[in-house]
Design brief:
Blueprint: E1 2-10, E2 20-22, E3 25-27, H1 30-43, E4 47-52, H2 60-64, H3 68-77, E5 81-83, H4 93-102, E6 107-108, E7 112-114, E8 119-120, E9 125-130, E10 133-140, E11 155-157, H5 161-174, E12 182-187, H6 191-200, E13 209-211, E14 223-225, E15 228-231, E16 239-248, E17 253-263, H7 273-290, E18 293-297, E19 301-302, H8 311-324, E20 328-332, E21 340-341, E22 344-346, H9 347-353, E23 360-366, H10 367-377, H11 380-383, E24 393-395, E25 399-404, E26 409-415, E27 418-419, E28 425-431, H12 432-436, H13 438-442, H14 446-450, E29 456-459, H15 462-471, E30 475-476, E31 484-486
Parallel strand pairs: 1-4, 4-5, 5-6, 10-12, 12-13, 13-15, 18-30, 20-28, 25-31
Antiparallel strand pairs: 1-16, 2-3, 7-8, 7-11, 9-10, 14-15, 16-17, 18-22, 19-21, 20-24, 23-28, 23-29, 25-26, 26-27
Helix pairs in contact: 3-7, 5-6, 7-9, 8-15
C-alpha cells in the first residue's frame, strides 16, 4: 500500500524568534514559521515536523533565560521530534537535562554517553506512528562537533563518522523485527559529513533519509549518496525544508518524493498571534536590560572572515589584555558571533556579537610552542576554508606575524617589536573552553603546557571583563593595524 507523508524540518534555529523586514517584506520569525507548520498540518493528511539541533544560543531572548524561553517557544511550535546540536550543551549538562524535562516534545540522541557506565543520556530514537505507518528517527552527533563536552567530564560521544554509522546500524538492526516504514537520521554534523556518513551505511539497515544541520548549508536540491537523499535548511527561521513523500508500506521504502525549501514570509505564511504574545513578553524584558548604552567606538569594527585578522577581534583581545596584564590574549574567531559593532555600543549589541561567558585562563607557552601552534593554525586547510571555517585565533596588540603561505613559514614572528625566541616564556590568556580543547585545536598537549608553570584563573567571565571596561570609558579606540598577515 502507498501512503503519503509530509515531513517538515528545520535546523540551527539559534533563537531566531523575530521577523525582520527584507525589501519591505516581513521575513522569518517563529510566528510565521508556526503559521506555516499549522497551515500544512491542516492541509495535508500526514504531517511531521523535525528539528536537527541547535535550538539554542544566538539571540538575547535565549541567552537571558538560558534556553528556558526557547523551550517554551518550541513547545508552542510543537515539533514531533528534535535531536541535539552542539549548542544545546552551552549552558552546561545539568541545565540541558533540566531543559529536556521542560520540553513537551521528544529529544533524541544516540551517541552521547555518561563516561562512568556508558549509559546514553537521551533516548537514541523515536518511533512515531501516523496513519498506520511507523516512522523511526535516530539522532546523531560526533565528537568533532560536540567539542564543548570536553568541559563536561561526565559525558562523551562516539568519536567519528564510522563509529556513528555503526551505532546507527545497531539501532536499525535491533528494530528490524518491527515493521518500520521509514527511517530518518536527524544529524548535527555538517552537510559534508552527512554525505560521508551515508557512504558508511549498510543498505540492509534501511536508512531512507538524512536531515542534517550544523554547517548552515543552503541547498537547492538534496544530495543523494548511496541512494539516500540528504538535506538541511540553512540557518534560522527564514526558511523551512519540506519533503512530500509517497511511502510503500509493503516494501518499507520511499516510492517517490519531492523536496523544496519554503521561504517563511508574509506571502505564504500566516502569523501565529498567540505565539507572538509569548515572544513579545520575553522581548520586553530583554529590551529593558539590553538597551543600556555602554560606550562609543571611534568607528565601526568588523570581522568579515573567521580565518583572517579583524578589527573587531582587535577590540576584544586588547580589552582583555588590558584587564589581565598577560603578554598575549588569544580569542577564537568562532567566539565572535557577529560581523560588526559600533559606533554606539549597547549591552544588547555586545551580547549579540560576543555571547560566550567562559572563564579566562592564564598559562605559559615557550616561544617554540607558540610558533608551532601558530603554524598549525595557519595551515592551508584552515586559512583556505570557507568564510565561517577553520579554527582561527585572534591576537592582542604587540603581536606581529607575517606568514608566507607558499613556503609555509613565518617571515615575521614578533612580540612588542622583538623577535620571539624558542626559549622565551610567554603568558597567554584564553577562554577555558578553548584551553580545554587546545590539544585538538592547536596541537599542544596539556602536560607540556603544565611543564612551563601552573594554570591561573584570571576571571570567571571574559564577557564581564569586556562589558565592565567598555562601560567605564566614553570612547574606545584600538590599534587597527593588521596583526596576522597572510602572504
Amino acid at each position: 500500500m502507498k501512503k503519503t507523508l509530509t515531513l517538515l524540518h528545520s535546523n540551527d534555529l539559534h533563537g531566531d524568534f523575530l521577523a525582520e523586514k527584507v525589501d519591505d517584506k516581513l521575513t522569518g520569525g517563529v510566528s510565521m514559521l508556526s503559521g506555516y507548520i499549522s497551515k500544512t498540518r491542516k492541509e495535508e493528511k500526514n504531517v511531521l515536523y523535525a528539528i536537527s539541533g541547535d535550538m539554542f544560543k544566538g539571540s538575547l531572548i535565549d541567552q537571558e533565560y538560558r534556553g528556558i524561553s526557547t523551550i517554551e517557544i518550541m513547545n508552542l511550535l510543537a515539533p514531533d521530534v528534535v535531536t541535539l546540536g552542539n549548542h544545546e550543551v552551552d549552558y552546561g549538562l545539568a541545565h540541558l537535562l533540566f531543559l529536556e524535562k521542560c520540553a513537551k516534545f521528544p529529544i533524541i540522541n544516540a551517541n552521547m554517553f555518561l563516561t562512568s557506565n556508558n549509559t546514553r543520556l537521551f533516548k537514541s530514537h523515536k518511533i512515531i506512528e501516523i496513519d498506520g505507518m511507523k516512522i523511526m528517527f535516530i539522532g546523531i552527533l560526533t565528537e568533532d562537533v560536540l567539542e564543548y563536552t570536553r568541559n563536561e567530564k561526565l559525558i562523551s560521544t562516539l568519536v567519528g563518522i564510522k563509529d556513528a554509522a555503526e551505532e546507527v546500524g545497531r539501532i536499525c538492526m535491533a528494530y528490524q523485527t518491527v515493521d518500520i516504514d521509514l527511517t530518518v537520521l536527524l544529524t548535527h554534523i555538517g552537510y559534508e559529513n552527512d554525505q560521508k556518513l551515508a557512504a558508511e551505511l549498510d543498505p540492509d539497515w534501511g536508512v531512507d533519509l538524512i536531515i542534517g544541520g550544523h554547517s548552515h548549508t543552503l541547498i537547492d536540491k538534496p544530495a543523494v549518496v548511496a541512494g539516500i537523499p540528504i538535506v538541511q535548511a540553512a540557518v534560522g527561521t527564514d526558511q523551512i525544508g519540506r519533503f512530500d513523500l509517497v511511502i510503500d508500506t509493503d516494501t518499507n521504502s520511499i516510492d517517490s518524493y519531492t523536496w523544496k525549501l519554503i521561504p517563511i514570509n508574509a506571502d505564504n505564511c500566516p502569523r501565529d498571534l498567540e505565539l507572538e504574545k509569548v515572544v513579545e513578553n520575553y522581548k520586553s524584558v530583554t529590551d529593558a536590560v539590553y538597551e543600556q548604552v555602554l560606550t562609543r567606538l571611534d568607528g565601526v569594527y568588523t570581522q568579515d572572515r573567521r580565518n583572517r585578522d579583524s578589527t573587531l577581534s582587535h577590540l576584544f583581545t586588547d580589552i582583555v589584555k588590558e584587564g589581565t596584564g598577560v603578554d598575549v590574549v588569544m580569542i577564537s574567531s568562532g567566539a565572535i558571533r557577529g560581523t560588526r559593532l559600533g559606533e554606539v555600543v549597547t549591552k544588547g549589541d555586545l551580547r549579540k556579537v560576543y555571547p560566550y561567558d567562559n572563564k579566562v585562563i592564564e598559562f605559559k607557552l615557550t616561544g617554540k610552542q607558540f610558533r608551532e601552534a601558530i603554524l598549525w593554525m595557519l595551515r592551508d586547510e584552515s586559512i583556505d576554508a570557507p568564510i565561517d571555517g577553520g579554527e582561527f585565533y585572534q591576537l592582542s596588540k604587540g603581536v606581529r606575524i607575517v606568514y608566507n603561505q607558499k613556503e609555509h613559514r613565518l617571515e615575521t614572528f614578533e612580540l612588542n617589536g622583538r623577535s620571539i625566541q624558542d626559549d622565551d616564556l610567554i603568558k597567554i590568556a584564553m577562554g577555558d573552553f578553548h584551553y580545554n580543547n587546545i590539544e585538538h585545536f592547536l596541537q599542544i598537549k596539556h602536560e607540556d603546557i603544565l611543564k612551563n608553570g601552573p594554570l591561573k584563573t584570571l576571571s570567571s567571565s571574559g564577557y564581564v571583563i569586556i562589558e565592565e571596561r567598555m562601560s567605564g570609558v566614553p570612547l574606545i579606540r584600538v590599534d587597527k593595524e593588521e596583526r596576522i598577515t597572510i602572504k
